[in-house]
Amino acid sequence: MGNSYAGQLRTTRFEEVLHNSIEASLRSNTVVPRPVFAQLYLETERPLTQNGRAENNDYYDDEEEGSDSNSPPIPYQMKPPPEGSCTTDGFCQAGRDLRLASLASAPLDVPPGFILVGVKSHSLQDNVLVCAVDHRFLPDEQGCNALLGFLGNCMGCGQQGFRYFTEFANHINLKLSTQPKKQKHLKYNLHRNNNGVLVKGAPICWRGHDGRIRQLESNLLEGQMPVPPPPNMTLTHLTVGYTGSHVDQVSQIVEASHSLQNGGDPVPPINPTSSNQAGPGRVTSTGVPANAGPPKKRHKGWSPESSSTNTVSENSKSSPQLAVSQNTNGVRAEIETLLSSSQGSLPSLSVPGLSVIVPDQLLQTCRLQPVIFKGHGPLPQFTGNTSDTLVSSLLHSCYLSSQTLPRVYQHYGPSPIQPLSTEMQILLTVYYLVQLGPEQVPLIEDLEQIFMRSWRESHLSEIRQYQQPQTPTTQGRHYGLEVPAAVAGVPQHLSLPPQGQQPLTPSQLPWLAQLAASSCGEGLIVLGEQVTSLAQGLQLTFSKLMDGHLKNTSYVVIIVTQPGQETQSCVVVTGKHQCRALAESMFSPTEGLKEINQQLSTGFAQELIQYCNVLGQDGDVDSILNSATFDGIESSPVTNKQEPSERSLKNTPSPKDKHGQKDSPAENSKDAPRVKDRVNSLKDICTEYFVQWREVRPIQLAVARKLLSHVCAIADSSTQNLDLGSFDRVSFLILVPPSEVTFQQTVLHLWSSGVLRELGGLEQDCVCPRDVERYVVKMDGSAQAQIDRLIQEAHSNSYTLYILIHDHAHWDVSSATYSGSDCGLGLVDQLINSRHVRDSPNILILHVTSFPFALQTQYTRISPYNEIHWPSAFSNDVDLYHERTRYFGVSELIESTRSGASLPLMRYDSSFESMATALEERFPKLHSAVIRTIVLIQHYCIALMAASGRINSSHSLHKHTSVETLEIVQSLLSAAQQCPAHHGHMVLLRIPSLALAAWAHQRLSRVRRRLGLEDSFEIILGNPNHALNIGQTFIDRIKIWLKIEEPDWVPRTYLELEALPCILILSGAEPLGESLPRSLKYCDLRVVSCSYLQRTTLEQELGLAAYLVQTESRPPHNNGPRSDSLESDAEKLSSSENEEEEGQDSENSPLLSSHQTQSGSDNAVMDPLPSQNTSSAIVQKGSTEAILTLAQPQTQIVPQLSSQLLPHPQPAQYQNQAQCQTQAPVVSQQPTVPPVQTTQPMVPGLPQWQKSKSSSPDSRSSSPHLSCSWARGVMRPPSVLLPRALYDIITASDSSGLPRCTSFLPHISVAWASSFRPLLSKMMTCTEQSLYYRQWTVPRSYHMDTSNRTEGRCDNFHPRRLLLSGPPQVGKTGAYLHFLGILSRMLIRLMEVDIYDEEDINYLSQAEGVQYHSSNAHWPNTDVMKTMPFDYNIHDPKYEDISAVYCPGYSPSTEKSQVRQEDVYLRRRTSRIKLSKYAAYNTYHHCEQCHQYLGFNPRYQMYESTLHAFTFTHLLLGEEIQLYFIIPKSKEHYFSFNKHGGQLEGMRLPLASDWSPDSIKSPIFTPTTGRHEHGLFNLFHAMDGASHLHILVVKEYEMAVYKKYWPNHIMLVLPTVFNGAGIGAAHFLIKELSYHNLELERSRRSEGGGPAGDVWPFIILADDSCVMWNAVDVDARNGPVEHSVSLKQVVQHMEACPELTHYSLCGIRKWSSHGLTGFKHMGPFSRGHLHDFFLLNVDRSQSVQYDQNRFTCHDVDFTLRLHSAGLLLCRFNGFSVMKKQIAIGGYRTFIIKTKMTDVPTSVGPSQYVCAPDSKHLFLATPAQLLLEKYLQHTSQKLFPLSIKNYAHPVLSVDCYLNLGPEVTVCFVSSRPHAINITTTGLLFSGLLLCFTDSFVTPGFLKKFTFLKGATLCVIGADRSSLRHTVGRLELEEEWRFRLSDEFQTANSKEDRPLFFLTGKHI
User: Fold this and answer.
1) pLDDT tens string 1892-1920
2) What is the mean pLDDT of residues 1466-1490?
3) If both were cysteines, with which of 357, 675, 1398, 1721 could 384 make a disulfide (CB 3.0 to 4.6 Å apart)?
4) Is 1029 helix (H, G, I), strand (E, B) or coil?
5) Inter-residue contact 609 to 934 (CB < 8 Å)
6) Rounded distance, CA 1856 to CA 1858, Å?
């Protein structure tokens, strides 16, 4: 079993074929070369023989532990065990113990011919399993004569006859991840000792190892050299992805440790002496001969090209051969090393006993500091001059991380997926280093991605198998492992061997590595076969370094593959550029700045300064400066003694000392021209100047609304983490990084936004930004006190919502426990993540950042649902937000480098790079930042000297600076001269080191002063710790531009420097959120560090150049690439044929390329190291003569552009003198030099620059060549200059098209969770990128989110924490400031409600003069109330559209408003009123006080309530009515139950004599429908905490939904027959039920011996829209004043009224803002109609019932009948109720539809009735409702004489029906002793009889007189009742009827229509 065979080599030599294949693979990324083994193995090989006889050792070639290679074994998935079988290790599937320790003393039955054998199991390291095997299938003592196959028995359960070892392995639960083989697992013979105990005996000899070695040695000595078979390896297809370093996850490694071991314990070699003592000239072989012939047994993985062989090698100089090493892959050692490192220390880097001596003077001799990367195995100990070397463990960590399989592949039991072997890792490392260019620096991220690619390619099928059943564990898209595509420069042909092939062996590794290294010459050297230890290899490397043999070598790879030992390796970096870059990258950013400061303070840089100061034959810079002339007057030389600090970095003042030191214009007055010479120029006005940065853009409004919607989503969630309804105002605090400019910038934005005035935090007369500084906090030492003050205010002001805005949130993510007090980091964690802030329910945190990656880890505190990403303003080139601006950011900068049509906006300076590289080699001890800064500042100084025109032309200064720098300086100097107001551009010079920045500022200022340019441009030192320091001259200019009259004003932000010509030296380790003005033209990043390659670091540096470009100037179409000059060349376009010249640009474009070719020879002089960037080469290829003209002082100002635009400087053509003198008088005194001509930077996707034309009539300002250069430049993004290394990284793209930097580690404080991760996709949205980082990154130990872990939870999100992310400079500050404003407005809106605010109707024009009660009377007098007349008029404005009730003595107004529609309440006048603390609320209100009231009682479970039935009988209902009460457990004490069955008996009522200040005696009934969410049923605040009984009266079909929203409220469920009834039925049932309960309560009390008549008889009927209550203060000084009171106060006042039981109905007034105007005439009490909220005496009003059939005007009808019955009504005018406008639900919402619901039909009022027995469209609407609506809308047809005839009303007997607003109704009662109005002499225009009873008689009707032609309308339940009524009342005597005058409602018979008959009076 498991034998493998080899083929035979063809005549082609193996090494030649393999070398050619590897070389072809290295040189090609597209063509896959022919496989090596396909070229070599085409025939079978004859077996080796000895003594003429072939050996048959087939089974010896089976894979075993002693011969395992280092590649993963063949994957194998064991058959799943049968259901119910045992799977415990050490037991068989029958559940019997097989362990030797258990069976040692047990009697065992061994069949004849079988022997006991010990089986080794990986899961039982200290024990073996016992089995019986037929001895014929086992080898003898010499390892021979074993039959193929297997026959064995289980000694546990006794099962016999296992014919296959695979089947047997499954039975005994070996649980293997590789193919089971008997040679690997049958290890020991077992026998019994003298005590009869079964013990292990001799190991089973599966191979004759010693014999084969001796045989090979004898063959070699006799000259029989075996033909070497090929190495067992195929090169893997790999691709470089760009990732970061890996974080150690020991838990995963522990779980994966078994699967990482490709086999068991290594078997040591039999003859270690012979295998380890191989030297030069000595032949050594440890291999075995291969066997010939076809395979005797089929294996799935076998093919002619995948044969696995063991090879023989000879270590000889003349004929090198490959050697075979029988070794394990060394994974266990790496696992143990990683486990040891998890204890808090790095892995051991040295081996005791071995040491390497570092030579003295290594750095001085070689001018480099070699970097040693620890690979596999421990490094030796270093002694000697160890300071000249650096040791890094990054490569070692990369190796370990690539061998840590993800957990997903460990959840399915034994897995066939194995990690990369050690040998494959080393070989892939060599191939990666081979691909690097001479100037490229190796990146561990690249190598890590190569490993992942290689591993995935080798296990593609298995990975897909594991990924298919997976389900996403994160929100959104699941990011599985995807195959990353290639990156340029990395070979495509490297792949792991397929599963059927043997992996790479250690002996093949050195030879293959040397073959790969041979393709790059001396660039990479592999030390493999000639070294036996890492110590020897390192010592040899140091010797070669000292001897100068490695001058052209960048890397030395040391590989040690000794037989019987683990493969060891390390990489020594010997390239000067690479060593410097790697050494500097080993510093942290803080350590790097400290190193720079140390070098500056010790004077290391002084030699470099002196070296750069010398310009060769041109002299030195200082002497040339001394020769500078001003207007022909030579300046006095300044000695070096006067300015010692300017020539020395050692004496440079510290940033703190430097603050405040500034070159004033008054210094060296004789060297500089006076300011007053040009003071008059300030009076000139530039009409093109404008400032727009204070405007709020539409996209900012959209983002603010998105923020608001997320806040509302938090409030609306079921978690109740934010109760917006409980807040009445907003306060905030903005946290910014410790940058003075950022602080002042935020203050300025806040002050100009007007947010504080809107929030009420700023007085109207406050106009100074200083007054708003208390709302902005710098995160420094002073922040603690302000945060504590905020926390105290939040605790004391629970009704204020505090927004804590953390701006630039990625700046400080350090943990407070890991950060020291001196560094200032960790303050954000200490303050924002404190318990007080976290647990405060009224503090909401908003993180704002351009780079959110550090806050998007696996342990983040921010929910992905709480992230707000800045939207894209354009989609398919459509402006979605009508912005008129287009954002130009990092992606657009990168895109500009790919256009190729013109000079890109982002580029590098090859000339500067060449000089910096040369000086880095000359000064190896200096930090590269020091060298590059000094060189750059020297370039600027020389460029200033060359462009100023003050230096003699004999000095060839242009040779000592770069064209890029000269272009920048020329543009800076000339821009201000072209504008009458001296507007110019900003040049940003980014120098991270504060000390270097201070020196640069001092050096540039000195040169500027010596050249007399103090008034031309400003030099600003941007120190984050200090405020801006600007010269007074420039401050005066800015004040004039901004029209500021404040004398003490100074600019505090960079934004206020708009259009100021200046050089801004921005220092600090990283930008801290400073916004730059639109006048920024050049962003010089040439000295930023290339060592810290994180996405955040790179993008925030590039973000300095982010820009908003105006889109108004976009042309309708693009005429092709146009060549545009610099801003300094604007005067060249002064020709009147501008349009023609623009049209010629594209025509002349071919000449550009031709001229570039012609001038190519000049490049050799200017650029000794030609750049590969063609765009930069265009700038470099200029003629020397043309640049020489730059230094010549010129008298002419406006040069003319030549007809052909050349890409390099040309001699300028000038206009005539007259034109210059007439058009440029202002700047004629200022010498100007022609600028460098370059091509226009291309802005992809943006409009090409167009000249801005002035609207001024002044010919001078309107001329093209004098138009403002700033105004033209503001339409174009700035240009960016980068270091070459960063440029190459940023412009490279990965497979998805994303920039390479996006695949880097996102932030320095996070780490990758696994190497096995996909790359970011270009199609990912911002949300998907967030989910990607949340899945694949983890915070480091010093990250503040590290502690944010909860056991058993996958997330621990803070519920009130939001994240706003958007690109740099896009306007996030304005967005969140606007968010604060709209949030405040929303809270005010939530605290306000729409209250009906309408003036009462139908009042007498002249108020009555009778006053019945004093204005300050508390309660009504019963006797007085009886004498008061009843007011029949209806005053409620909601009844403006109903019929007026006739009242004698009242004359209606003739100016009555128009009739309203049916849904008139939707159009009624409302006012927005702020809710008081006594308001009623709907279900959306949540506060802590309401929790128990709403059902969150800890004593009772939520929704714990009981359904109780209650039955009573009423005569009008005609049958027993069964009602249902839903009573929560917490409210059962309000009811009485049967003691035996627990049946509901009634509702407990208090006594009239009871009184308590904290309770309400009257039960409150609120009928409601359709308002389960919006009904105002939360009376907790309205009752001011008083106990009360509140019952919701709901319809049966709405019972469930009301119970859901109001679980703690008592529900009275109406019977099923009332589902379609109106409000009259609800009030009827409430009143009758209450009276019935009153009788029951009286009986219950009388049975108990109590007073029966003293039971409280009142109930409260309240509308579900009553929101607030008010009381009138009549004692106020300025007349009656209303103020808000609680419902408790209103009810208790009414309940305390003396003789209250004499009143049948008491109510209050409806609120109106005009209600108090007639309060004195109205009186404190009145008699009239009552609505919406009243106190009903169910006992006194028992004789009068609500009409159960009524839908509308039921309260008017009930009040009229109450009054006619002689019952007393009283309205308390001292109280009023406010009704909220609720447009949803309610009893006034009626839907009239047809029975055919599928057919939408519009039904008019005329269709509500029809003739009896006619075919008509029946309606699915109650008959009573149809009748009421018909009478309301068709009264002009029924009662034509009554229209607008108040003097002749319609007589309505015993009921009130609405006949429309134009008809007046006179109500009379037919009851005996009823109180009716006097109708003597009153003529009625109609008679309405509705359901008349026996009290209506013919004699009663004869009392009334009707007009001739008056209309009669008789309503009955059916036609027979109509005829009976007509006959009984003898109506035919005075009324004429027709058959056609009989009608019915449009109902079917089953719906019981109503009938009515009309007639005319005779």
Assistant:
1) 999 999 999 999 999 999 999 999 999 99
2) 85
3) 357
4) coil
5) yes
6) 7
- Those residues whose C-beta lies under 8 Å from the C-beta of residue 1959, and which sit 6 or more positions away, are 1911, 1912, 1914, 1931, 1935, 1936, 1937, 1938, 1941
Confidence of residue 694 (pLDDT cuts 50, 70, 90): low
User: 3-state class of 1836 per DSSP?
Assistant: helix
CA–CA separation, 1572 vs 821, rounded Å?
57
State residue 70 phi and psi, 5-degree precision. Answer: -95, 5
Answer yes or no: are the C-beta atoms of 1687 and 1587 closer than 8 Å: no
CB 1224 within 8 A of CB 1266: yes
Q: Which residues of 1554-1566 are buried (b: 16+ CB within 10 A; e: fewer)?
A: eeeeeebbbbbbb
Own/partner long-range contacts of 1150-1156 (Cβ < 8 Å, ≥24 apart): 1151/1204, 1151/1206, 1152/1123, 1152/1205, 1152/1206, 1152/1207, 1152/1239, 1155/1206, 1155/1207, 1155/1208, 1156/1181, 1156/1207
**Backbone conformation region of residue 1891, classed left if phi is above 0, alpha if psi is from -120 to 50, else beta:** left
Determine what percent of the chain is predicted with pLDDT higher than 90.
43
Q: In terms of Cα–Cα distance, which of 1353, 1319, 1361, 1357 is closest to 1336?
A: 1319
DSSP of 1529-1548:
GGGGGGEEE-TTT--EEEE-
Q: What's the start-to-end Cα distance of the chain, in Å?
A: 124
Does 770 or 1402 have the greater pLDDT score? Answer: 1402
Number of helices followed by number of strands (H, E) in the chain: 54, 62
β-strand pairing of 1768-1779 with 1337-1339: unpaired
Determine contact, residues 1709/1773, Cβ cutoff 8 Å: yes
Tally of CA atoms within 13 A in the half-sphere of 1204 that contains its CB? 14
One-letter identity of residue 216: L
pLDDT digits (tens, 9 = 90+) for 1820-1871: 899 999 999 999 999 888 999 999 999 999 999 999 999 999 999 999 999 9
> Looking at residue 820, what is its pLDDT?
55
pLDDT tens, 835-870? 899 889 999 999 999 999 999 999 999 999 999 999
Find out whether 887 and 1340 touch, Cβ atoms under 8 Å.
no
For residue 144, is pLDDT > 80?
A: no
**pLDDT of 185:** 84
What the block records as the tokens of 1147 is: 């025509």
Burial class (CB in 10 A: 0-12, 13-18, 19+), 1801: exposed
Cα(811)–Cα(397) distance, integer angstroms: 27
For residue 1671, the cross-strand partners are 1683, 1775
Q: Measured between alpha carbons, how far is 643 from 655 in angstroms, rounded to an integer?
A: 18
Asked whether residue 50 carries a pLDDT value surpassing 60, the answer given is: no
**pLDDT tens, residue by residue, 1292-1347:** 887 777 888 888 999 999 999 888 888 888 888 999 999 999 999 999 999 999 88
Q: Give buried/exposed letters for 563-573 (b at 16+ CB in 10 A, else e).
A: bbbbbbbbbbb
Neighbours of 1487 (CB within 10 A): 20
Angle of CA points 1504, 1505, 1510, to nearest 5°: 170
Please, what's the b/e burial string for 123-157 (b: 16 or more CB within 10 A of its CB; e: otherwise)?
ebeebbbbbbbbbebbbeeebbebeeebbbbbbbb
Specify whether the CB–CB gap between 198 and 130 falls below 8 A: yes
Ranges of beta strands (E only) in 1204-1316 are 1213-1214, 1279-1282, 1310-1312
- Report d(CA 574, CA 320) in Å as an integer: 27
Question: For position 1489, what pLDDT does the model report?
Answer: 78
Edge-to-edge order in the sheet of strand 198-203: 152-154, 124-134, 114-121, 186-192, 198-203
DSSP state of 129: E
1339 bridge partner residues: 1310
By the 8 A CB rule, do 795 and 840 touch? yes
Output 1718 or 869, whichever has higher pLDDT: 869
Query: What pLDDT shows up at residue 1801?
Result: 64
